[in-house]
Specification:
Helices cover 48% and strands 0% of the residues. It is globular, with a radius of gyration of 12 Å. The protein is an all-alpha fold. The chain has one domain (3-59). The protein starts with a helix and ends in an 8-residue tail after the last helix. The protein binds zinc ion. Zinc ion binds at residues 23, 25-26, 28, 50-51, 53-54.
């Protein structure tokens, strides 16, 4: 997760959740080993802290997904 960027846009609470291993959007506890579909999703998680489901909701799965 990029703390500086998250803090800069005012996501303090979200940062706390992420630091406890929870998705800042849905509060789901994230298992980094199992919850992600591929390395792209894991990379996104490192940036935003979002779980796979929320990544799908927010980014959609059309642009960077191969079915
Ligand atoms: Zn989520």
């Amino acid at each position: 997760m990029n703390k500086k960027i998250m803090e800069a846009v005012g996501f303090k609470k979200e940062i706390e959740k992420v630091e406890h291993g929870c998705c800042p959007f849905c509060n789901k506890k994230i298992d980094e080993e199992k919850d992600f579909r591929d390395s792209l999703s894991r990379k996104e998680f490192k940036i935003s802290g979002l779980c796979q489901n929320c990544q799908d909701k927010i980014f959609g799965n059309k642009t960077r997904r191969n079915k």
